[in-house]
Predict the structure.
Amino acid sequence: MRTATGRIRQVLPRLQGGLKGLLGRSGPPVAVARSLPGPGSTVSLRPEDSLSIQIRDQSPDDIACKAAQNHGQFLARQDCWEELAGAMAEADHARQTTPGGMPVAELLAFGARADVVNAVEHALSEGRAANDPPLLEGIMALEAIRQQFRKSPHISTLVALAHIDIGWAWRGTGWDTIVPKLNRRRCAAHFDRAAAILTELDCTSLNSPMVAAAKCAMKAGHRGGGEKIADDYERLIDLDPLNHRHMRALGNHMLPRWFGDYGELELEARRTTARTENVWGAGGYTWVYFDAIAIDDKACAAVDVDFFLDGLRDIVQRCPGQEMINMLAAYCAVALRNGLGLNEEADLPRLQIASAADWLIREHLRELHPMVWAHAADGFDNNVRITSTSRFAARGRSDALQFIADLFRDDILSGQHVTFTPEGPRIKPA
């Protein structure tokens, strides 16, 4: 590790100098910064000409997420609320997830409330009056459904989640100082209503990660005192330790921009690791820091790199599927590198962790999931608006192939062709 760290320190000033010009450009930084030789070279500029790898434009996770959402939407449109309640309860108690770790119960609930939330978002985008029917009728209809199914905690949770979504729609993404008072009041009212609904539900006695996750989502927008959000996440993670998304959300909400500070982030990462060691090994530490260090330079500067990398290997050992490998490789190759050159103290940890992309790709990558790589370029931000799925996927495909080609640069320069097989990459003369 000392030798590798020494080499990184030697090249870091040179890398930072080169990045200053690149960071001012638009477009995916990885595709720009990492390229094969230019005109005059004997090597093709098209990575596709030197690489062969199976590409899944729609990964199993994409397909499963869409299917669950569509099913939830279908049941709601057909007024099959009893069937929907049963499907959510069954998926929740069985901890059913998609290959990428999305809880199926939450996806069903997302689809079931989609029409109501989309109508509100559309009405707000058109500047409709606060008492306009699309802003009120949908959520009132869901409230009426809840009254009919008072014994179903999952229907109640679905309605609370609809209030949370509508609250964020009223809030928007602007700074607090520029959000109109009416919007702030309406946002607060919806979060208050979500809190009132969820207060009646005990996620532990119900054995329900869906209820626990909704309480965390409510706290993220409610900010109204009470116990710390870390306590809510502890209950959620204990209920569903196999799902890494809960730990990632905890780390994000421990940042100073939300509810914590860097000391609390480190504390929760280590506490979570201790509680989930039998499931993830050291991976709990990695998951809690996963998103935090990608978006916060001070968190990145403070992370225990060796512990993080140990956790990364433990995650791969326990979840070697291609959905996971693509996400981890894209995270190291793209998401982490987006912040290079912006903070000197964070650059060394970024580079040390980003270097894991080498062994992830060489030892574990067998197929490419372009959508995962495209999301990595946006920091895995779930709020990013995708206007064209095909263009979004094409960007991810280009970033991934360019990075992989650069990883095998010496082989390609010597006239070799790299083929990814089920046993790993094979290098043969072109």
